[in-house]
Amino acid sequence: MAAYRDYVWKIGNKKKVDRRSNHRELDRFSVNFYVSNFPSFLTARDLWKEFEGYGKLVDVYIARKVSKLGKRFVFIRYANVIEERKLEARLQMMCIGNFHLFVWQDSTEIIQQKLITWRSKEKM
């Protein structure tokens, strides 16, 4: 008879799965926008419904902080955007009620794009 130590117990057929989120992959294919001057009573779900008609909306985040002017602001993220400037122009024309939204592409995105183009020109 074999001793207890000779047996290898295997329960289930579980493979190791990479449980990290896909934020890095999403960052490569998405565009972030900063939005302010919207009604304070709106929730993230309400904003989602307003913005989803302009492309594949991935994320809506209402910041707890307020801007220097004392207004709330939102970060929205779209995936698979081909022409970022056209989307930004369309979003800048958007109004909710009597509020004309102020929309800018997130500055970190713009800085990263400039660095990429600068590095590619440097290599040439």
TrEMBL record:
Keywords: RNA-binding. The keyword RNA-binding applies. InterPro entries: Nucleotide-bd_a/b_plait_sf, RBD_domain_sf, RRM_dom. Transmembrane segments: none annotated. One of its GO terms (molecular function) is RNA binding. PROSITE patterns: RRM. Gene3D superfamilies: 3.30.70.330. The keyword RNA-binding applies. Pfam families: RRM_1 (PF00076). SUPFAM superfamilies: RNA-binding domain, RBD (SSF54928). Residues 31-80 form the RRM domain. This is RRM domain-containing protein.
